[in-house]
């Protein structure tokens, strides 16, 4: 089972998360011979700024504030970068929130289960083989071919339960 719940819900040195994610992204892009352009890198870092999913316009706003309020980052630029990052498996889309979150396990074969805290908004990514097996068996009985699987579970993280 893969999970990043130990860091997603607790205080930690988040710079290490961002640095490690950036290193993994660069290696993955180099291996695939695709370009992680400066704007794609900036969108990636903005998404990784916390363990809270961000909508596209939140990303636009944060990037505009980080660069210069005079020069607004345009939404189509951000959307193209998001599309690239999704294609490379570097980020995930959480449909229920219409938001994006960094993938802590890019390049690894895993199915997505997200534990989303309704109080603080943090989200942890997990995968569990038994859930994957249950989904595959259910689909098989219905003669259905699974192309992607994302399970979103909303509740309270350990910090917010206290």
Write down how many β-strands occur, each being a DSSP E stretch of 2 or more residues. 6
Helicity, as a percent range? 40-55%
Output the helix-strand order.
EHHHHHEEEEHEH
* Portion in strands: 15-25%
Please state how the strands of the largest beta sheet are arranged side by side.
1-5-4-6
The biggest sheet, with number of strands, parallel, antiparallel or mixed sense and barrel status, is: 4 strands, mixed
| Mean pLDDT, all residues | 88
- Class of secondary structure makeup: alpha+beta
Figure out the total of helices: 7
Question: Would you kindly provide a written description of the structure presented here, covering whatever features stand out?
Answer:
The protein is 46% helix and 17% strand. The chain is α+β, with helices and mostly antiparallel strands. The strands form 2 sheets. It has a 4-stranded mixed β-sheet with strand order 1-5-4-6. Helix 4 packs across helix 5. 27% of the residues are buried. The mean pLDDT is 88.
Q: How would the blueprint of this fold be written?
A:
Blueprint: E1 2-3, H1 5-8, H2 14-32, H3 38-47, H4 56-67, H5 75-87, E2 91-94, E3 99-102, E4 112-117, E5 123-127, H6 129-141, E6 150-155, H7 158-161
Parallel strand pairs: 4-6
Antiparallel strand pairs: 1-5, 2-3, 4-5
Helix pairs in contact: 3-5, 4-5
């Amino acid at each position: 089972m893969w999970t990043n719940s130990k860091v997603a819900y607790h205080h930690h040195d988040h710079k290490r998360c961002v640095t490690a994610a950036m290193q993994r992204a660069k290696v993955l892009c180099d291996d695939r011979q695709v370009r992680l352009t400066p704007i794609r890198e900036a969108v990636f870092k903005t998404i990784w700024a916390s363990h809270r999913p961000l909508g596209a316009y939140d990303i636009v706003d944060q990037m505009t504030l980080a660069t210069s309020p005079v020069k607004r980052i345009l939404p189509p630029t951000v959307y193209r970068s998001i599309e690239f990052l999704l294609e490379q498996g570097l980020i995930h889309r959480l449909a229920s929130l219409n938001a994006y979150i960094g993938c802590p396990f890019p390049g690894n074969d895993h199915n997505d289960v997200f534990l989303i805290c309704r109080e603080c908004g943090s989200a942890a990514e997990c995968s569990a083989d038994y859930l994957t097996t249950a989904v595959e068996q259910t689909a098989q009985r219905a003669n259905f071919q699974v192309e992607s699987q994302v399970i979103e579970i909303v509740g309270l993280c350990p910090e917010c339960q206290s």
